[in-house]
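hey can u check if this looks right to u? its 224 residues, i copy pasted from the old doc so theres a chance i mangled smth
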Amino acid sequence: MQEMVNVYFFGKQYSVPAELTIMTAMEYAGYKLVRGCGCRHGFCGACATIYRIKGNNELKTCLACQTQVQEGMYVATLPFFPTDKRNYDINEVEAKQKIMMELYPEIYSCIGCNACTKGCPQSLSVMQYIAYAQRGDFEKCAEESFDCIGCGICTSRCPAGISHPMVGVLARRLTGKYIAPKSEHLAERVEAINSGEFDSLIEQVMQKPIEEMKELYNNRDIEK
């Protein structure tokens, strides 16, 4: 017999197989997901979810595509969390501490509660990379925030109203534009692509049957 658990979606109880993720359990229950779903592999950040287990007052966060259902799970999805992205021209800003003070001054209101780190489904040190941003250490901020998927869970838990993913994006852009060494081989490859050097090869690949394309992809050379 297949093990079943009782879960609650939008306040309604459903009995679903215990081995399913929250996302697949919702589909099993009959929901058609048109928002709050994307890659289904924990990379796009579209399925941010808040849940609580019956009898436990702790509010937990996760990605619906990566988290297995549990008995008595009450689920609320966040298909989109409105983070506050400030407008700027990357060619006109400088990699100096004052840019964070100008664009994201709320990071200096951080109270060190660490709710952002506790909520991160990627287990990132979110509060730490915000501290790096406060000090203008953009390279370390970029490194710590590199695996951010922009789900917005950290922002939803922050009492200071910080848009952590957007701060990380700015740090990574500043690092790539002004701090990290220029990648000569990348510039050469981009120039070759723009000049049409690979057009015929791309056309050949596009004409191949889908199964052959899958085989080429699965057996490609991957740089370690």
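The longest strand covers residues 4-9.
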